[in-house]
Design brief:
About 55% of the residues lie in helices and about 15% in strands. It is of the alpha+beta class and about 475 residues long. The protein has a five-stranded antiparallel sheet with strand order 2-1-5-4-3, with helices on both faces. A five-stranded mixed sheet has the order 7-9-10-12-11. The protein has a two-stranded antiparallel sheet with strand order 6-8.
């Protein structure tokens, strides 16, 4: 039984219908509120007009009771011209002087009649069920004299004119809503298309990245979340691309390293195997046996050095190295390096000079600081002939500075930052190195310096030599 695919509702339609629905609801609410407000305003104005006429009639009659008939006739003509009418009623609610129209006051509900008797004005809209006439506004005003109720006046006015005006305004409002809806429809369609296109660009770019294409860039901005997402996407792709380039570079260096190591291991292993076979089969003269044994010992040490360098790097990288720090005299360790590498320097006709004050101390792991200095000094010896290698120590602010400077062939500016990389060899044409440098030495040096909370920098110029500057804090943070 095949599984049904879930229905999809495209993001474009989600955006579009959300915009349109919000606009429709907003317009409907505003239209209803406006129509209700307008209708109340029309009724309120008509009621106020009737009340003002009623008060004027009662006031004139009260001031001139003898001329009441003349006053009534005058107001009848004025109100008739405005399509209004009025009638007087007594204290029992009976109408008299009816101007040919008007309902009976007795039809008023008892509670409204009680309000009138207490001196309150009653306004009745056209939908009031107690009257027989429709489309008319009624206003009932009481007549009080010295607090006593004597009757009042009932004024009526048709509201066909105001209703027609309200209907006309509603028609105009409807046309306005339709036009606004059409404009908002087009605008919502356009804006939804813009947002969907931007998301589709991101989706397409993400698909390319998932397919292994990392040279992707999408237009970005900072004025909304989609633009910021595009920024983050571009940064992510850039980091992935850099990582892939770094992985490719590392893989190339690893292959070269394996080729170098294979070559380096093949030579001593071949030598060791040949000497052992010669000794085993008595093919080496007695006088040359000691020389052959020494040769086997040297080649074995070369192999051990290669393995140790790899083990050291992995231990440092995985934080398995534990430093045993102590106070060490800088001039003493520099002299030890000088003595240790004296013969190697002599082979290339180099001099090693030490310059350091006797009271300068460093807080470090003795074995590891020796390893750092030997690695760097061996590099200086390797690339210097008939020159001088200086080992200097000095204090600078709150730091101890150790410099190793040579007058060798130097390093190209483009190569300087690469010398710290694992497996990297500055002189790739050298396939045999008598000092055991297999592209790991300087990488190990940098890791060990960082474990001492120190810094290491190199300054070099092609043909003019190289200077390594190592700085350590005078007192370690974890002392």
């Amino acid at each position: 039984m095949t599984q049904r695919k879930p229905l999809k509702f495209k993001y474009f339609y989600q955006q579009f219908f959300s915009h349109i629905s919000i606009i429709i609801v907003a317009f409907l609410l505003l239209s209803l509120l406006f129509a209700h407000y307008l209708e109340n305003l029309v009724y309120e104005n008509k009621s106020d007009e009737l009340i003002s006429y009623g008060k004027a009639i009662l006031s004139d009659i009260k001031q001139s009771p003898l001329a009441s008939d003349q006053i009534i006739d005058q107001y009848s003509d004025v109100l008739a011209a405005r399509k209004m009418s009025f009638s007087l009623f007594d204290r029992d609610g009976k109408l008299y002087l009816v101007n040919n129209r008007g309902p009976a006051i007795s039809n008023l509900p008892r509670k409204d009649w009680e309000k009138v008797k207490k001196g309150q004005t009653i306004v009745v809209q056209s939908d009031y069920k107690s009257f027989d006439q429709d489309g008319v506004t009624f206003v009932v005003l009481p007549y009080l004299n010295k607090g006593r109720f004597y009757g009042g006046i009932l004024l009526t006015s048709p509201i066909s004119g105001p209703i027609e005006m309200i209907r006309r305004i509603n028609e105009i409002l409807l046309y306005t809503i339709l036009i606004a809806f059409a404009v908002s429809f087009l605008q919502s369609w356009y804006l939804s298309q813009i947002h969907v296109r931007r998301i589709q660009r991101l989706r397409k770019a993400a698909s390319l990245v998932s397919a292994g294409h990392f040279n992707v860039h999408v237009p970005s901005s900072n004025y909304d979340e989609i633009g910021e997402l595009a920024n983050d996407f571009n940064n992510m792709v850039e980091k992935i691309n850099n990582s892939m380039l770094e992985i490719e570079s590392l893989e190339n260096r690893r292959r070269q390293f394996m080729a170098d190591v294979s070559h380096e291991m093949r030579t001593p292993l071949t030598t060791i195997s040949g000497v052992i076979e010669g000794l085993k089969n008595n093919m080496i003269p007695e006088k040359d046996k000691e020389r052959g044994i020494n040769l086997v010992s040297q080649e074995a040490k070369r192999l051990i050095r290669l393995v140790n360098e790899n083990l050291d790097y992995e231990k440092i990288r995985s934080n398995q190295i534990q430093l045993l720090k102590e106070e060490i005299q800088v001039s003493e360790i520099l002299e030890i390096i000088q003595e240790h590498l004296y013969l190697q320097a002599e082979e290339k006709k180099n001099q090693i000079k030490v310059e350091s004050p006797p009271d300068l101390n460093i807080y470090a792991d003795y074995d590891r600081i020796i390893q750092i200095l030997i690695n760097i000094t061996k590099n200086s010896i390797q690339f210097t002939s008939d020159g001088i290698i200086w080992l200097r120590g000095r204090s600078e602010k709150n730091r101890v500075v150790i410099e190793i400077e040579d007058t060798g062939i130097g390093i190209d500016a483009a190569e300087v930052e690469k010398i710290w990389q694992r497996f990297y060899k500055a002189d790739i044409s050298r396939t045999s190195n008598p000092y055991g440098e297999f592209g790991l030495g300087l990488s190990i040096v940098k890791q060990l310096v960082h474990l001492h909370n120190g810094e290491i920098n190199v300054y070099s110029e092609k043909g003019k030599g190289t200077k390594f500057i190592i700085t350590f804090p005078i007192q370690s943070n974890d002392k």
